[in-house]
Amino acid sequence: MQSGTPFAGFRIRLIYGALGLALCAICATGVNIWLIRRRERGTGSAMWGRLWIAVVWGQPLALALAALVALRFDPLLPYVTLTLAFLLFAAVPIAAMTLRGGMRSATALALALLAGTNVFTHGIFPADAMAMAVNMALFAGSLSLGLSPCGTTRNIAL
Predict the structure, then answer these.
(1) How many helices (H) and strands (E) does the chain have?
(2) What tens digit of pLDDT does each residue of 69-107 get?
(3) Do residues 89 and 54 touch, judged by C-beta distance below 8 A?
(4) Containing H/E element for 47?
(5) 96-122 vs 129-147: helix axis angle to the nearest 10?
(6) Dihedral angle, C-alpha 113, 119, 124, 127, nearest 10 °
(7) Whole-angstrom distance, CA of residue 138 vs CA of residue 64
C-alpha cells in the first residue's frame, strides 16, 4: 500500500464496521443472558445489573460526548471522567429500567448533537464521503435509540 492512500474501499470499511458492531452485540447479549440467569437462580445482584447498564449505555454516551470535546480539545480526560462518573452513578439505588431509559435517551441526544455539530462544522457535503456516511449513521443511531421502546424488565439484567 502506498503512503497516503486510504486503508480500504468503502465496502471494506462497511464490513469492518458491521463486524465490529456484531461483536459488541454478541458480547453485550452474552453478559445480559448471564446476569438474567444469575437473577433467576437467586444469586443475582441489582448492583451488577446497574453497573452493566452503565457500561453498555455509558460507553457510547461517553464516546459521543468525548467526540464533541475532541473538536476543540483533547478528549481523553473527559472520556475517562465520564466513564468513571457513569460507573459511580450505577451505585445509586435506582430502578434498572429508569437507568437504562435515561442513558439511552442521553445517548440518542448526544449522537444527534455530535452528527449535527459535524454537519454544522464541516457542511452537509464534507470533503470525505465517509464522513457523510458516519454522520448519517450517527443520525440513524440517534433516531433508532430515541424512537425504539426500552424493552421489558425481563430483558434487563438486574
Answers:
(1) 5, 0
(2) 998 899 999 999 999 999 998 888 888 888 888 999 999
(3) yes
(4) helix 46-69
(5) 150
(6) -140
(7) 10
Rounded CA-CA distance 69/46 in Å is: 33
Which residue carries 450505577 as its cell? 90
C-alpha cell at 138: 450517527
What's the DSSP call for residue 90? T
User: Cell 459535524 appears where?
Assistant: 118
**Reduced to 3 states, what is the DSSP secondary structure of residue 55?**
helix
> Which of 118, 98, 108, 93 is closest to 140 using CA atoms?
108
CA distance 133 to 125: 10
C-alpha cell at 75: 478528549
**Beta strands in the chain, from DSSP E residues, in sequence order:** none
Convert the pLDDT of each residue in 21-48 to its tens digit: 999 999 999 999 999 999 899 888 888 8
Grid cell of 108 as nine digits: 440518542
Residues 106 and 60: beta-carbon distance below 8 Å? no
d(CA 131, CA 139): 12
Give the model's pLDDT for residue 5: 58
